[in-house]
Amino acid sequence: MSSKFDVLFRGATVVDPVHRVNSRLDIGVQNGKVVELGPALSGAQADSVIDLSGYTVMPGVIDTHTHVRGPAQRMMALAGVCTALDMGDMRGVLQELPEWGCGLNIAGLQGIGHWPNEPPSRGEVASLIDAAMADGAIGIKIVGGHRPSTPEATALMIDQANLAGVYVAFHVGTTATASNLPGLLEAVELAGDNCLHIAHVNSYLRGMDRDPVDETLVGLAAIGGRNNLVSESYLAVINGTGGQIGPDGLPTSHVTRNCLKLRGYSPDEKGMEAAIRDGYCLVKVTEGGVTAIYTGEPGVALWRSMGTNAPVSFPVNQPQATFLCAVRKDGEGRFVVDAIATDGGSTPRNVAVEYGLCLVRYQALTLNEFVLKTSTVGAAMLGLRNKGHLGAGADADLTVLDMDKGIAAMTVVGGKVVMADGILHGSGGTIITTPRGESRVREMGYRYQIVHPEEMLLYTKQRQG
Ligand SMILES: [Zn+2]
């Protein structure tokens, strides 16, 4: 007789805001789907039973802002992430999946942009979008702040992505502004009536111009109540940028230049070196399958050994701003910023669970709200109807929380344990793509799931009003 369940997760407190569940339930899984939930399902009908007594189970964390390169997937699985949206390099993600995949679901955007002078033609942007979609991306990310384009070119990219009906996210900032509050206000203007995902809202509110709380309230007021905008913010103090010095002796990333200026370092090669030596700039490198951080003289040496082209981080995010972005609601009780993400991956700040649960402990968010902002809304953002909840038929993606320690104890994707107690067990992955990317992903031999941009929150939010 065949078993009723491939695996039975037993004894955890299950939190599912969609089905208003917050009680001790067993979860029966077959073929990667939740097939039954009940207070006492029989283990006799299961091939395997995993005892989760004392733990809390939520629908798998969906991180809607990540960078899936190098050790990123490992670091995300360790942090309880089941599904991630890569912001910028879908081609790289597909290439690296065999080497670095550890069983997660990955969707991706392809980064485009950098027209600081003459704007591109519509045809040029349209063909970049077509190429990104054919390569499996669900849309584009306008790289903005790091490598800004003119406001005109930026508006054109947003408009063309809307015309093409693909996902479009924006790291704000143009040649007229930067990754700051004016950049955020400008982004709202440049979107006009078009739909736009504003990436990591908190990162523009670093107190560059005035008190970070004032900046944050102004920024949140500008995006609140606009149903053509979706957004996420993250909770970490460190950012992620590049340490490369260009032929002109200046950091190629404008974000890096701003970080140096923020603490009084000259925005050039000398300033970078001093910032690394002082421990203000963190140089990152992959070691033993995860990301290691160096500062001081070893940091300078590492940065030099990489020809300055090293990923770096600065502790520039304002806790007041990240807090407000995470918890602030509008007059109708809706969160102004839709999701809690991380902008993590290989940058060691995959803290949506760890810091998010701090907010729950602090009663700044209820556990239900935490699950909404780290899973349910993410599923809506990616048009994934079978994720973000744990009803019968849902994908068996589970993040198992140790509420005492405030961390993810286990990550389950499609009923398979990919991480337990800090040990990784998964490989490969499932690519989330659109019908336009299906043949590429199939060609590469990967598992995949099809989504439709018109069913994503980016577009449904406006239709629903
Ligand atoms: Zn990012």
Explain this structure to me?
This protein has two domains: 5-58 and 389-439, Urease, subunit C, domain 1, CATH 2.30.40; 60-278 and 313-386, Metal-dependent hydrolases (TIM Barrel). The chain has 14 helices and 24 strands. The chain has helices spanning 72-78, 90-100, 122-134, 151-164, 181-191, 212-223, 254-262, 269-278, 296-305, 319-327, 352-361, 367-381, 438-443, 457-464, and strands at residues 5-16, 21-30, 33-38, 46-51, 56-59, 61-67, 81-88, 102-112, 139-142, 167-170, 196-198, 229-233, 241-242, 282-287, 290-294, 311-313, 339-340, 344-345, 398-402, 407-413, 416-420, 423-424, 428-433, 447-450. The longest helix has 15 residues, at 367-381. Bound molecules: zinc ion (ZN). The site of zinc ion has 4 residues, from strand 6.
Key words describing this protein structure:
465 residues, alpha/beta, Urease, subunit C, domain 1, eleven-stranded parallel β-sheet, nine-stranded mixed β-sheet, binds zinc ion
